[in-house]
Amino acid sequence: MRTMTPKLRIWWGVITVLVLVYALFPVFSIIATSFKLPSQLNLGQFLPKTWTWSNYEQILTGSAKDLFLPALRNSIGISLIATAIAVVLATLAAYAIARLDFPGKRLILTTALGVSIFPVVSIVTPLFNLWRNIGLYDTWLGLIIPYLSLTLPISIWTLAAFFRQIPWELEQAAQVDGATAWQAFRKAIVPLAAPGVFTTALIAFFIAWNDFVYGISLTSTSAARPVPAALAFFTGASQFEEPTGAISAAAVIVTVPVVILVLLFQRQIVSGLTQGAVKG
Amino acid sequence: MAAITLKDIRKTYGDGFLAVKGVSLDIADGEFVILVGPSGCGKSTLLRMIVGLEDITSGELRIGDKVVNDKAPRDRHLAMVFQNYALYPHLTVFENIAFPLRLQKGKFTEEQVREKVEFAANTLELQDHLQRKPANLSGGQRQRVAMGRAIVREANAFLFDEPLSNLDAKLRGQMRTEIARMQRRLGTTTVYVTHDQTEAMTLGDRVAVLRKGELQQVASPRGLYEQPVNLFVAGFIGSPPMNFLPGEVDGDTLHLPVADVPISPELKEKLGDRKLVIVGLRPEHFEDASLTKDSREGVVAFDVNVDVTEWLGSDLYAYIPFETHADVASKLEELDRDLDGEGMRTQMVVALDSESRVRDGDQASLWFDPAKMMVFDPEGGENLTYDAGKVREVDQQNEQDRKASIQRAQEREAAKAS
Amino acid sequence: MSADVATQAPARAPKKARSDRARSEARLGWWLAGPAFVVMLAVTIYPILQALYDSLFNYRLTAPDDKAFIGLNNYKVVLTDSLFWQSLWVTTLIMIVSVVVELLLGFALALVMHRAITSLRGLLRTAILVPYGIITVVSAFAWFYAFDINSGFINHWFDWVPGIDPNLNWFAHQGTSLSVIIASEIWKTTPFISLLLLAGLSQVPTELEEAAEVDGATWGQRLRRVVLPNMKAAIMVAVLFRALDAFRIFDNVYIMTNGANNTNVLSLLAYNTSINRLEIGLGSAISVILFLCVILICFIAIKLFKVDLASARGEG
């Protein structure tokens, strides 16, 4: 490491500020908008003139609550279930890929790769028609199934990469040390595999949480419509009023938990994202 | 503590590959036995069958007086040090060593666990690292943690699977003595797998040489060195390796590429009616004639052209190229392959006194004692000059020395404790 | 060495009939991986086949009884429709511009993170992950509101820039709306690309760079001649994945313009045709074409640019 000259220090300070502005400015922008009074939206200023919670009141307890709260419930429920299913299936598959030698291993990985680049819109049209016929349209299950096409491939790739790095001979070492097969798995392997599974779940959840195409195409009411789709259907308090404040407030509410997760687990997310993608 | 007995152990893999072809071996209680051989000889498989990580296809494995063929690894009460140590990365050094104790729930109090771990840590000088994670340790420290885990297990036997192969040369020497010291102190039966013949010679009470799944010879290191049963063992044990020269029998004379050797009556009997043999001469059997003023009786003296020399301080190696005989060339090439060789040129290595002034390109006068010469059958490779009585004698001496040294180590231990 | 025999053994008799052990391992493998495999096929292969089938019919949900086989007629309608070509052009434009900018910006960010001291690196990485974690629709709204003629502040902040004044309606013209759409797309997805590139960067051995430095290479030469060639695989994979992702752009366009002022993209066209206008036959044809475009991009990347997905994705 070369020593930091004062000039270099200033440069790094400038660079850091630039990166922070880049990453956070749009977020602050929508947070600022969410605190503006509807009447002061058009002042052309970044910060609110008067800070107000009225937009949040509107979506949590007020006129828009029937639009937002069910959507929030749907988003959380559907994303969690789709993530759970994907992670369970992917864990089994990745274990097989990492530890067993069987014909078709590459086929499975290639399929996962193929599915992950599949254009979502190409799937949506036939599903839309089918779901209407068999009654899955506008239901949780009707979204969970297509969400698997988003969450499953990346989970398989990420977990397979994680599992390949686990020193599996530890299982044998534990058995020699006097562990039963189950103890060996639980005490030597699970602690090593758990972070990988957790990270994969986090990434899969982000992807499901982010979906928009399936959300607006395969739902019609608050029975299953997730937040991103619901945001697009927000309407203002009156015909002449834009729903800007309400949408911003809702956007902030669904963004905050994600940002907190990112802050808490940034190291794991980075390794998960890149492990699945580049040899690591 | 227990003896380990292998009776006609075989291992056939699912695809029909025969990895271990009927190995029988008695390992006495407290003995340090080395399994040695080039890669692919089945030594690791054999070790993994003893510990229970591989199924035994046929044969009988006893630990103590119990047949353990079908017992799970945990029920065999053995401890193993793996090649890459198999430390649990999520546990501290303390918890890694305590791992086998924690598995036996309720058997040890927290106090006892700490006592045992601290004992092992003191033995291995790991006291200062107990709260660190394996990732932050050096290679030698990891190695010692793995040994610590074996110590607290209070196992019937220790098994080592090439434990030093990931360490650099200097550390390897240190850890070698560390392992020897630990084994003498605890007196635990030990089976140690390696492909390194220096480890085999220095550590083992007895060494079992394996080749392609077959046991070649089991003897004390000295027994192996002085009386190898065949070409393979002779070529494997010793560094630099034994020189193999074609020998043509012509009446009472044996023609070697570098010299002619008179055939003694005893040797004549052993040769039978063979016309061609392979002669084995260890590098240190040669001497520089110019350094020995008084000419000796019965030695074979000859002049050769030296190609390259290496001065090592303690020795001087001189390399002497020679023309081999077409009929033995293929046999020697096969041997070279078995020994993981590189198909090197046919040359002889002689280890001379470091005061020798022989240098590259010199014409040198050398001599050797024909009584030390070994003669091998060119077809089967068996040692025609093998002397079973001598081996027994050497092994008996070795056994006495071993018992005495264990006793000394334990007396010292007892004296320290009181 | 510990597993030398075990690992060599299967290789020694490859021609023999597969043993029981190998068979049972294969069976277990498929029992474990099978469910995931079947689910993946079910959620993609079935729909695309159904779309292929539907695309051959004149099929509207508004008049389901008029369903009739019309062969490739839907494709003819689509391919002669100027709206389709307009969307294809816009989609391709968005893809190329965003990938190029993201690659440059992402590489700069990756370099910054790579060079930064450890304490700073954590901060930068966390900051960079924020856009990644944010829902695309939220990002779209954030950028939309910032530029909006009524609620935005950009016009006021930047009115000193020629061409920008408080009365500029960004979303009333093709060029300006596309700029904002691309900006939002870039902001949201650059972190991903820069993380991939950072992983690629950290795989270039430091000794290589040092050797080049000793050999007298300048910073730029080292980058161009040593670093970049050694992370080519990482770059190509990042580009391919982002290109395919950008080609499927939907959320940003839907939120900001919904295709107005010639900003329609293929995904939005397919969505509006089948989900809004319920013309399943025609929509399916667009879906199939979109799918073929993605295949074509992949094919070009793999054949022409020799992107080695297998090795780059950690699968030997």
Describe it:
The complex is a heterotrimer of chains A (280), B (418) and C (316). With 280 residues, chain A is mainly alpha-helical. In chain A, 74% of the residues lie in helices and 0% in strands. The longest helix of chain A has 35 residues, at 65-99. Chain B has 418 residues and is α+β, with helices and mostly antiparallel strands. Chain B folds into two domains: 4-226, P-loop containing nucleotide triphosphate hydrolases (Rossmann fold), CATH 3.40.50; 239-386, OB fold (Dihydrolipoamide Acetyltransferase, E2P) (Beta Barrel), CATH 2.40.50.140. Chain B is 32% helix and 28% strand. In chain B, the strands form five sheets. Chain B has a six-stranded mixed sheet with strand order 6-7-8-3-9-10, sandwiched between helices. A five-stranded antiparallel sheet of chain B has the order 13-12-11-14-21. In chain B, a hairpin with a 2-residue loop joins strand 11 (243-250) and strand 12 (253-255). Chain C has helices at residues 4-12, 20-54, 73-80, 82-115, 118-133, 136-147, 154-157, 174-203, 206-214, 219-230, 232-247, 251-256, 266-276, 280-304, 309-312, and strands spanning 57-58, 68-69. Chain C has a two-stranded antiparallel sheet with strand order 1-2. Chain C has a domain at 83-277 and 290-312: Orthogonal Bundle (MetI-like fold). Chains B and C meet through helix 1 of B and helix 1 and helix 2 of C.
How would you summarize this macromolecular structure in one to three sentences?
Chain A is mainly alpha-helical and 280 residues long. Chain A has 11 helices and no strands. The mean pLDDT of chain A is 86.
